[in-house]
Amino acid sequence: MHLPAHDSAGHDAQRELEHRALRNVRGLVDRMEADERMKGRSQKWIAAGIVAITVVLIGAILALISFQRSDEARELTVTPVSNAPAR
To answer: What angle do CA 52, 38, 42 make, to 5 degrees?
Structure first.
């Protein structure tokens, strides 16, 4: 069976439209995947930043506590001087 020339041309045009639509969909999927990868990287950097800030704050708090304890320890070792005459 041989298709008439106008059916063949219509079929070719339909195939070309289908191929173009598939290329457009593939391009859209590729862009969406790239956006997801970038979003994932951004979230990892944000999480790493939050962890780093938390570690620095905990370190600062522990340092302050340590300095306060060392000051309290120095205050406890001070002995009062008595003004009473020695016998």
So the answer is: 15
Q: Model-level pTM?
A: 0.51
Q: Closest Cα partner for 41 from 20, 33, 21?
A: 33
The number of angstroms, rounded, from the C-alpha of 75 to the middle of its chain's C-alpha atoms is 46
Q: Where are the beta strands (DSSP E) in the chain?
A: none
Structure tokens at 4: 């008439």
Residue 58: C-alpha distances to residues 41, 53, 61 (Å): 26, 9, 5
What is the residue-level pLDDT of the chain in tens, covering all 87 positions? 455 555 788 899 999 999 999 999 999 999 999 999 999 999 999 999 999 999 999 999 999 999 888 776 666 555 666 666 665
Q: What angle do CA 35, 40, 45 make, to 5 degrees?
A: 125
- By three-state DSSP, how is residue 66 classified? helix
